[in-house]
Each structure stands twice: as structure tokens, then as C-alpha cells.
Amino acid sequence: MRNKTWIYYLILALIAILFLMPMLWLVLSSFNVHARQALKWPDQWTFNNYLTVIQNGRNLRGFGIGLYISVAQASLVCILSLMAAYPLSRYDLSYKKPLLYAILFMTSLPMIAVIVPVYKIFVRFHLLDSIPGVILYLTASGIPYGVWMMKNFMDGIPKSLEEAAFVDGADSVQSMLHVVAPLMFSGICVVFIYSFSGAWGNFFIPYILLNSEAKQPASVILFQYFGKHGAIEYGALSAYSLLYSLPAIFLYILSQKVMSKGFTMNLSLIHI
Question: What CATH class has 58-269?
């Protein structure tokens, strides 16, 4: 029995090393101006790679555009998903079950599967190379997942709380905004975090739909450090990658508190 346990720990340790080695290379290379593919301790620690990234105006503009796209998309997904999930959660609709199945199917539909017709639509309506157009597409692709999660969170809020608001003269919109939404605030934060992370890390859609370099977000600009003819700037690439991961790290730390409340919210509301 002890031998089996030792083997299990050994396998887990090997898996951990496989995950940690790339991260260690990324950190060490970001402080090494002569970084290469091999894992090497820097001969001289320097912040030159970070200064190269930060002092590049295109990089800063890309970070700003990426944040703008991600925040706008996540906000729209939360607002529209809340509005769509409310009738699915509160009303007995005859088409609710097939609609939910359709939404569940759309959550598993990859973006690349519909990119050709989407590209033609963008060309037809002059949305190509348009940041609002990219936000529109990312919002549309994120709504099914947002609706599915919003409905699950909303189902955990007792309808009796809304009935008291209806007695006081509130309508459905007021009840949704002033009763349901505050109670499921943690759930809304969960949807926002997932939507933001998906848009922030999306490379394919902005790369296809945005042709102008001045409009490209950080996820696309990252490609510039791969250089031409195989000449890769490993040091600058590593520094850029670490800076690029900061919003995701911040959201991960924030989600430890917010998301845990969101997932346990349904259980706590049962006892109200």
C-alpha cells in the first residue's frame, strides 16, 4: 500500500514539474536580455525587457484596447443575460425546455465553426476592422453561457421575495433590478469574470476581424515578438506575457472571494 502511495506522489510531482518548468522559464527569461529556448539562470538580472515592452506605445495602446473590448463585452453580456434569464427563471413558458437545450448547445459551439458566415456578415454591413463590431460578436458568442449561468443563480432566489415587491406596486423590471439583481450580485460577478477572461485572452477573433494595427488588442500584438523568419525575441516575449497575465491574475485573486459566494449563494437563500 505504501509503495502505491509513493508511486502516486511521484506521478503528481512529475506533473507539477511539467507545469512549473514553463512558468519558471517565463520568469527567468523576462529578466534576461539574452534569453533563449533553454532554461538558463540570467547572467545579469535586468528590467530592460519590461522597459522595452512598457515604453512601446503600440503595446500600451493594445492593452488599453484589450481592456476596453473585454470590459465592454463582459458588461453587455451581464446586462443582456440578466434580462434574458429573468423570464426563463420566473415564468412558466411553453418553449422553455427546448430554448434551454438550444442555449446549452450554443455554449459548446466553437467560435471557429461560424467565423466564415460571420466574416461575410461583417463585410456586408461594413463592420470589418471595427472595434464595436468585435465587441458585438464577442457579446453574442458569450450570451448563451451568460444566460445559462444567470438562470441557475436566479433559480436559487425565492419568488416570495418578489411577491412582496409586487404587493408594494413594483413591476417585473423594478423587481428584477431592485430585488433579484442585488441578491445575485455575486452571481453577476461570476459571469463578468468569466466573460472578461474569455474576451481578454481571445486571439483568433480580433486577429481575423481587425486588420489595422492601430486597432489590435494586446492578445494580437503579442504575436509581434515572434518576429520574422523564426527570429523570436524571447526576453521581450516573456516580459510581455507576464504583463499580459496581470489582469487574469487579479481576477483570479478577486474570484476566490466573489465566485465562492456566487456558487454558495443558492444554498444560503434556501433558508430565507
Answer: mainly alpha
